[in-house]
Amino acid sequence: MKNDLVELFFREKSLVRQHIESYDYFIEKEIHEIVQANNTVVSDIDHCFYLRYLGIRIEFPTFVENMVEQSVYPQECRTRDITYSANILVDIEYTKNKQKIIKKNVHLGKMPIMLRSSRCHLESYAGTKVGGNRLKDHKAQECVYDNGGYFIIRGVEKVIQIQEQLSRNRIILETGKGGIYSSVTSASIKHKSKTNVIYKNEVFYVQSNIFTEDVPALVVIKAMGVEKCREIYEYLGIECAELIEYSYDEIYFRRIFSKSAALLELSKFVKLKADEDPEKGTERLLRDKILPNVECSVNLRNKAIYLCLMIRKCVLAKKGHLQTDDKDYLGNKRFELAGQMLSILFEDTFKKFNFEFKKSIDKILSKRIRTSEFDALTFFNLQTGSISSTLNRAISSGNWNLKRFRMERSGVTHVLTRYSYITALGMMTKINSHFEKTRKVSGPRSLHTSSWGMFCPADTPEGESCGLVKNLALLAEISTDSDSGATERVLAELGVTEVADSSPSAFYAPSNFLVYVNGSLFGLCQNPVKLAQKFREIRRSGLLDKFVSIFFNKKEQALYVSTDNGRICRPLVIVAKENAFWADRQIRENALKNRTFTDLVTGGFIEYLDVNEENDSLVALSKGALGPAHTHLEVADCAILSLVAATVPFPHHNQSPRNTYQCAMGKQAVGHVATNAKKRSDLLMLKMNYTQRPLASSLVLSLNRYNLIPAGLNAMVAVMNYTGYDIEDAVVLNKQAIDRGFARVEVYRTLKIELNRCENGRLEEIHSEGGVEQVVGPGTLVREGDALLSKVRPDRTVRTVRHKGRAAYVDRVILTRGEDDPFVKIVFRETRVPEIGDKFSSRHGQKGVVGLVVQQCDMPFNEQGISPDIVMNPHGFPSRMTVGKILEQISGKAACCTGNYADATAFEDNSAPGAETQVEKTCSDLVAHGFSYSGKDVFTSGVTGEQFESFVFFGPIFYQRLKHMVADKIHCRARGPRAVLTRQPTEGRQKDGGLRLGEMERDCLIGYGASALLSERLMHCSDEFDAHVCAKCGVICYKVRCSLCGMKPVVVKMPYACKLLFQELMAMNILPKIGLVTGK
């Protein structure tokens, strides 16, 4: 049943659905709300002038060339280094000569389009079946397996990573320097701010950006319209009586007894406009900037009540009734995807656009004498480039710097890495935390219990990012905004009394419970358990959005309902629907043929729960573990893993760190990038020529299409000691296997040569001799220094571009034009066969370099005459405890015998009750085909011809060749370039730098007393210099005479860096002197 549901889930859902759904929601809904919230631009000079936005829409991607606009596809954008973007069109209404004019389809800018989204020319790729969109992808020269979810900016593929943030619009209890305080990070369509309530000097204060200093909380509450002290007392509750006493004394001391007095008092702490009334201006700031998430239609009473709730939470926490919130708890997190990030960026850019437009028209309207008739549309068109450039720059650089929202984030976007198909897929599910990576704190890094089924427990990097960079689990979804109005109507129908209809005295009555919707107080109810049950029934019937959640907090005596975006959810089977559909396999199989996963959700068989609602549920791991108290059942055991971690066969038999290592190395494995690899011109692309589907496969490998585009091959592996070159995880390779194409990789590199525009505006051209363009042709072998292309300037000077680096063949030469000037792309192809030093890895985190390549005639062979492709050391098993690798080896061997792929799905045992287990079945298959049940064979030495005394564990294991190759790392030099400042050899392989003799190496040589070697390495072979030193005063001087004593200097050999240091000290009025001793 479980595998059926997982297959059904991915039959209609994309592997990167979170990004695409978020972007589609932004394009189809959020962008309209942003424009609606900022739809009018007025002039301060001419009050009759206005410009109003009537609508906005995004078209399909186009590119303008030779004044003609035409459709553009992703592959063309990659090749021509242009941006895959579409026009943003708006309908506007404005005044011209006091007449109203409406213009349709006015160009506002260009919006980068996410691949496979609703605005992409490629069809959305929902599901794992390659169907009707294959022909369209083929015409567009696009990979049929590409999932999309990324952008193409100037030819570079960029992905906006999922950003982890603290929950918005929720009261969070935190501990700071002054003790416990409550904070709310508020966000609405128009405004965003943060409000804190702190306890200082036994008085509660409010902190906000609009106040120049902390202001008493009760003053703010009175300014918001709750004037009576008794009313404030009732909103706070009887528990706050002791701690609130001095806060009342504060307002008596300031003599604030009315709303007007409170507003005047607050006006001293805010910045108002020059001609603005203090009371009205302060009230406007309170309405807009303090708790903007709390809606106030008539007055600010709702904000005052919310402030009282913040104070009450602080008091209860100080008394020990409540605990501070766990920031690492997933229920207190929200996850921002591409849609949310672009929404914030577009909102800030759009407001800036309107501000600049207003400035430009005010400047024109302020001139009394105008030579031409004023038309606002002219100035509107002049500003449109700013929106396109801002969006492109942010996605290209990854920097989200928004002054309006005080946001300064870097590393939001990353270049989509394509070592293999699974590498690109792994980047799409990555979650980035903004916690400082250098801090050695265990809290944010540890695997929180609330992340079960939401985050992968294995897929996280090693090193400083460990635990901070996470990956989504297989079935995890991230919610988008749903209609809170519909949810509120349902709550009202279920008997919730709204705040406006509730008396303050009823708030904290024992029988009453507060009901929050998206963190804002909505009303009161009396039977929360029954209410939550009825609410869930309505949601399961499909009348509410599937991502709406409801949960009951008994300690706070509150019921929380969430409809906001960024919540992480996962599907679970509802146990209450235990009927023939789940009980009878045949009925279920017949029903699933005609149903989708969405049908099961709307039918009430499956529902999505977020982390908070899971706390009200009891989830059974398997059907056999179901009890009377269970409310839900897991969809699949393997669903706790990510798309990358699920590539590990039998991961539940491995030591946990080994699975984590494989998640990192699986992303470094070289395989097929895409089906259109020959059409791509990436800066660097690795492609394995002959890949194979793993013999030990799993359910997820079929769903994530790893079986169709693998990154490795099945190697025959003998576990034995051989030649001594296999120590420390090194492996021995079969030379004839390499000659047959084993793990052969092609490396493609692209060189871009621009034809620049000269001073006179004319372009460089490709030089021709005898009518033949001087460009290297495809198939040509080029070595270091060979000519690739000759360019001629308008003044007829010729410049030749030459090849740098290793010898390679020219694969393709492309002459094209991008957004600016034309350029030439030359794609080089280099074949890499495995050699000593190259890195290999199995799928169990056991990596090793090639220690030796042996001729097949010297390799051992078994009774069938089969020699292994790889020999690995048996000492790699005991300490690593990778039992999964042993199971993969015997399962793969049995698969070769039976002709059926072995099932290596995590936590699965497909044997029937009372029958053989999966391992026993595998061993039986081996015995039935004449092999030992243990997977061991008799081997004969290829050198002596004698049989080995012991049996050898032998069978196929899926091995990966990693991107770390010795050809990319080997480096040596005798002479080469030197740095201009220090005259020492440059650093780094790319700059043909020297090999650094560092401090520790120097210490070793000093310890050995090797002074001559030290002198040679650190001076003679580095930056030896003949310095002129005065023999009398020991100062470095000119070669003619000493400027201090007039003596003729002597020549002293020293490092140039030492001489430079002495001269810099002399520039700082510090006089270093060198003591000279006459040699014997």
Automatic annotation (TrEMBL):
SUPFAM superfamilies listed in its UniProt record: beta and beta-prime subunits of DNA dependent RNA-polymerase
Give this protein's Gene Ontology molecular function annotations: DNA binding; DNA-directed RNA polymerase activity; metal ion binding; ribonucleoside binding
The UniProt catalytic activity note for this protein reads: RNA(n) + a ribonucleoside 5'-triphosphate = RNA(n+1) + diphosphate
The UniProt entry, under CDD domains, shows: RNA_pol_B_RPB2 (cd00653)
Question: What's one GO BP annotation on this UniProt entry?
Answer: DNA-templated transcription
EC number(s) given by UniProt: 2.7.7.6
- Pfam families in the cross-refs: RNA_pol_Rpb2_1 (PF04563), RNA_pol_Rpb2_2 (PF04561), RNA_pol_Rpb2_3 (PF04565), RNA_pol_Rpb2_4 (PF04566), RNA_pol_Rpb2_5 (PF04567), RNA_pol_Rpb2_6 (PF00562), RNA_pol_Rpb2_7 (PF04560)
Q: Does the keyword Phosphoprotein apply?
A: no
Q: Which residues form the RNA polymerase beta subunit protrusion domain?
A: 15-368
Q: Does the keyword Oxidoreductase apply?
A: no
Q: Which residues cross the membrane?
A: none
Q: Which family does it belong to?
A: Belongs to the RNA polymerase beta chain family.
Which PANTHER family does this one have?
A: DNA-DIRECTED RNA POLYMERASE I SUBUNIT 2 (PTHR20856)
Entry protein name: DNA-directed RNA polymerase subunit beta
Q: Give the originating organism.
A: Enterospora canceri
What does UniProt list as this organism's lineage?
Eukaryota, Fungi, Fungi incertae sedis, Microsporidia, Enterocytozoonidae
